UniProtKB/TrEMBL annotation:
Residues 11-71 form the HTH tetR-type domain. It comes from the Bacteria. Pfam families: TetR_C_6, TetR_N. This is AcrR family transcriptional regulator. The keyword Nucleotide-binding does not apply. GO terms for molecular function: DNA-binding transcription factor activity; transcription cis-regulatory region binding. Gene3D superfamilies: Tetracycline Repressor, domain 2. Residues 34-53 bind DNA. Keywords: DNA-binding, Repressor, Transcription, Transcription regulation. InterPro entries: BetI_C, Homeodomain-like_sf, HTH-type_TetR-like_transc_reg, HTH_TetR, Tet_transcr_reg_TetR-rel_C_sf.
Amino acid sequence: MRRPVGRPPQPGRREEILTAAVRVAAERGLDDLSLAELATALGFSTYTLTYHFGRREGLLAAIVEHVETEMREQIRRLAEGPGGASPGELLRRYWESTRAPGAHSYMRLWLELLVLAGRHPDRFPGFQQRAATGWRDLAAQVLREHTGSDELATLIVATVTGLEIEQMLDPGSPRPGQALDCMIRLLEQRDAAEGP
């Protein structure tokens, strides 16, 4: 009878490594991040990473899936959170969550994934489609329920994405937040004009 090689997987170990890998990838970027560099940053051996994720592409795929899942969950949590459920309140909650510690590097990772998937779709198969129909579609669905308009929901999601990019380019600028406040006021005026 053959003995198994190595130790059996420890419950939760893969998730622990993945969470740390996402943090490092968000800080350093993904494009040229090697397994050796990642292993050093995490304090693991490359063997540990390949044991849990296979090749580098397997780890990148797990990071992509993790980021997508987190974005969807964040939208769900915001939509189900306490307080008013108006589009303006949802936008305020979301914008506040993007100011949380670590959110800037996380958003940078998300945008990097979008660019890399556009440049190398075979490296991240289906990512662009899932990005369009995943958390963005969920956000549009939540907003659509509150606004009654597909077009307005799409416009809001696209505007917020643009403001996030502007905030990434100039992190200290108050302009994106001010622009968001302006959009919220316009939505509230629209709601008031339509009445109950």
